[in-house]
Amino acid sequence: MSQRQLAERLGYSDSMINLVERAKRPPSKQFAELCDRTFALDGTMLRLYMATTWHKAPEYLRPWLEEEECATVLRTWQPMLVPGLLQTQAYAHRILSTWPGVTSEQVEERVANRMQRQSILYRDQPPSLNVVIDEEVTRDHIADAKTMREQLLHLLEVAEYPHVTIQLVPYAARPHCGLMGGFVIAERNGMCYAAYTDAQPVGRTFDDRQMITDLIRKYDAIRAEAVPFKESVRLIEEAVNRFDA
């Protein structure tokens, strides 16, 4: 396909195609998505585009971003916060602003990166996202009431997607093995191949088979304590009403 033919299909000028091909101008997210559609690719161009934004993320997180992009299934447990892939911009800003010594510019870059990461949930073939969170996350006043209400409504919206499941672990389940920290497990082609764990001072990514197996067992044990999906949605709706009060 010539540059002119591609330009006509994408709705861009010949010169824009030329500049992107020669790495003289970075493509936009829309450009990447249109290329995927035109060439019948399974998100390849979008993943490459995402790779160009990783430098805006904290260095410790970059290895995980690469693994996250390739996953067909993501399983996550979070005892304290809404998972990053489901955070609203205002909620993410509140969380990322708490880092000691962080500048306003760094916060804006990291919020933008977090929002960009969420695009994997809206591509043509998104990964299945199985989220288990502590009920406390829906009640905690980690931000102002408006931000919390907006965040909870966003959870309800995302929960309507067929590839997303959200479950809450109730207070009655405590103590349980998930209280020591959150984590995410990435799966591709039926095999769990990477994981990310929360830790101090920063989280870490690993691919050790035994450690991943241990996390899978822990995830299954935590999820066994969670209430069913429909009941979890009802509890989130109740939490929204409390922030309305």
From TrEMBL:
Coiled coil: none
Source species: Sphaerisporangium siamense
The protein's name in its UniProt record: HTH cro/C1-type domain-containing protein
GO molecular-function terms, A-Z: DNA binding
InterPro entries: Cro/C1-type_HTH, DUF5753, Lambda_DNA-bd_dom_sf
PROSITE patterns named in the record: HTH_CROC1
UniProt lineage: Bacteria, Bacillati, Actinomycetota, Actinomycetes, Streptosporangiales
Pfam families: DUF5753, HTH_31
Entry-linked Gene3D superfamilies: lambda repressor-like DNA-binding domains
Domain HTH cro/C1-type: 1-46
